[in-house]
Amino acid sequence: MKHILKCEKCDEYTMQEKCSKCGSATKNPKPAKYDPTDKVGKYRRKAKEKDLRERGLI
Ligand SMILES: [Zn+2]
User: Fold this and answer.
1) SS3 49
2) How confident is the model at residue 56 (pLDDT cuts 50, 70, 90)?
3) Among 5, 34, 35, 37, who pairs with 26 as Cys (CB 3.0-4.6 Å)?
4) What pLDDT is stored for residue 27 in this prediction?
5) Which residues on adjacent β-strands are paired with residue 14?
6) How many A from CA of 13 to the centre of ligand 1?
């Protein structure tokens, strides 16, 4: 499996060890972990729940 790397200068994701734009060494970005305090996720879960309720599934 290939790792996705990130150029912190350009904020670009790439598979290359060097950024194709600026030539900087790219870094392995920290994986996005599940965050229970994530507000977007909270709204997404609420929206999902609402959708299920409206459809009478829960
Ligand atoms: Zn770059």
Assistant:
1) helix
2) very high
3) 5
4) 93
5) 5
6) 9
Is residue 34 over pLDDT 80?
Answer: no
**C-alpha 51 to ligand 1 mean position (Å):** 41
DSSP-derived 3-state class of residue 25: strand
Ligand 1 centroid to Cα of residue 32, in Å, is: 21
Residue 35 is classified by DSSP as: -
List the domain boundaries for the chain. 1-29
- Predicted model pTM: 0.48
CA distances to 9, 11, 28, 30, 42 from 17, rounded to whole Å, are 14, 14, 9, 16, 35
Q: How far is ligand 1, taken at its centre, from the CA of residue 48, in Å?
A: 37
